[in-house]
Amino acid sequence: MDNIKEIQPEELENRLNNGDDLTVIDVREDEEVEQGMIEGAKHIPLGEIPESVSSLDKADNYVLVCRSGRRSMNAANYLKEHGFKVENMAGGMLEWKGKVTR
């Protein structure tokens, strides 16, 4: 079983509103992201995560997001194996009630 910390959408929203130092990475596909993305999130489709590792900073804290939480968990596991500090947003965008940007 993976030992990635899962956070609830409400907790992520509170942390973003409080200015916590974290980067949200949305791993959904382009057409999904067109429907809206968490404000300030960085869009890296799941298939591009391996080649994007070099552009990410291991000092940062990352929260991974997808539609339901499954793909983002895969991305979180991959990044954790490569030494990144990651969390996964449980329930994905299906559960997100906060602001989105298009």
UniProtKB/TrEMBL annotation:
Domain Rhodanese: 18-101
Domain of life, source organism: Bacteria
SMART domains: RHOD
Protein name (database record): Rhodanese-like domain-containing protein
Organism ancestry: Bacteria, Bacillati, Bacillota, Bacilli, Bacillales
